[in-house]
Amino acid sequence: MRCWSDWVWSLYSKVPNSVEFGGLHFFRFLQNLISPFPILMLRMSADELARPFSVLVAGELPWAEYLPQLLFPVTAERTSLGKVPLWRLARTLRAWGPSVDLMVVRVDRVSSRLFFGNHYLRVPELVDLHLEVPQNIEALYSGNRNRNLKNDLRRVRRNRLTAEISHLEADLQEFYEQFHVPFVRRRFGKFAWPHNRTLLGGLFRQGGLIWTLQHGRRLGGCVYVQRGQELSLLAIGTVDGDDSVTELGVQVALFHGLVELAADLGCNSVNLGGSRPLLTDGSLRFKRKWGARLTPREASNHLLLHWERLDTSTARALSGTALVFVDQGHLSAIGTLDRQGLATSEDVSRAVRFLSVPGLHKLYLCSASGFEPGLDLPQHTYLIDLKDDESIRLPQAVTLKPFGAHAAHAFPPWASGTAG
Q1: DSSP strand pairing (293-296 vs 269-275)
Q2: What kind and span of H or E run contains 367?
Q3: CB neighbours of 243 closer than 8 A, spacing ≥ 6?
Q4: Beta bridge partners of 39
């Protein structure tokens, strides 16, 4: 009889070569192998939903519920369906698939490729945004394109905010207890996950702490680390978790201080930190304003999404969102247009302008009411017409009935089986 370790390693040998991972990924993989996965049914009914909507959630709670709550910020009836081991989870979910509108599974990257096929949209739990440091910092704030950012910097100066760098352990302790932890808990509630204090302390010694002050009073701060030619933001916070100080320009001052410090240290890029995988997320859009580029976060868990039917009701429930997903080693996004009639060229162009971010590979737009014929599409934009076929299924959703000049070449990762 084979021992446990032999079974684990035989399973490990079956991981596709395209999946690269180190100790952290393997540790999470082993954790998931021995931990049963809770399964939860969420049933929602609200005026903004076309009909009662059901979401099946699997994974460690409450974290697995985070994305469903972002997508559907309404009160849900929660029903526990028990726990299932990882090796049996995909089969269990297949049995439930026809009876729910959406399934969300939170799992590590290795397990997502090993146990789950190409019928799932692989959404990273977090994405990073990298900013290339210009030779002249003032170039960030010049020109019409950067007018909003220039106004933000004026607000910083008008409110007399200044930056101060610290390498003192006592300051790190103050930042962690009085800034970071309250800030994360107030912003994310039951989903709050402050940084591990010990780990943050080790990384702090490879970087430091930037304070934002007003008349000598500390209003905000961030911990950074230098890795080669890149400066990375690790943790951020405001005094007592007070989000109102951001109106003064505290976060703008912190980012500006990071960029200036990176230039002084000879770094060529700044990682502005993780954001939620939604192109409509406020944090992501704030970093986009700086010209930051969307990039995968290698250590991120995967949130696997599956629609049994990508119909008009599902599309309407997801309206106003644009999910980022893993697309053959790149990051693409899928969003919906909420219109009563046929979507026009202006509707599509407006959505593209709003959602585009540097580093985005492709943008798929769904419409429950269809599109006008003969649209001239922006490059890397693909349309999914749900009007003629209200039972489009994943994984074929973005390859069925390609619409428009650029859609003919849309071959998504879950159809080709080469997702990263």
Answers
A1: unpaired
A2: strand 360-367
A3: 183, 186, 187
A4: 58
Helix (H, G, I), strand (E, B) or coil at 370: coil
Is 90 buried (19+), middle (13-18) or exposed (0-12) by CB count in 10 A? buried
Is the backbone peptide bond immediately before 62 cis, with ω within 30 degrees of 0? yes
Write out the DSSP string of 9-68. Answer: HHHHTTS-TT----HHHHHHHHHHHHSPEEEEEEEE--TTSSS-EEEEEESSTTGGGHHH
What is the value of pTM for the model shown?
Answer: 0.83
CA-wise closest residue to 22 among 129, 109, 87, 106: 109
Q: Partners of 388 in the beta sheet? A: none
- For the domain made up of 128-276, give the CATH fold: Aminopeptidase (3.40.630)
Helix 250-264 to helix 147-158 angle (10° resolution) is 100
Q: 91 by DSSP, 3-state: which?
A: helix
Q: Note the pLDDT tens digit of each residue in 71-128.
A: 887 788 999 999 999 888 989 998 888 889 889 999 988 888 888 877 888 999 999 9
Domain ranges for the chain: 14-126+297-308, 128-276, 310-420
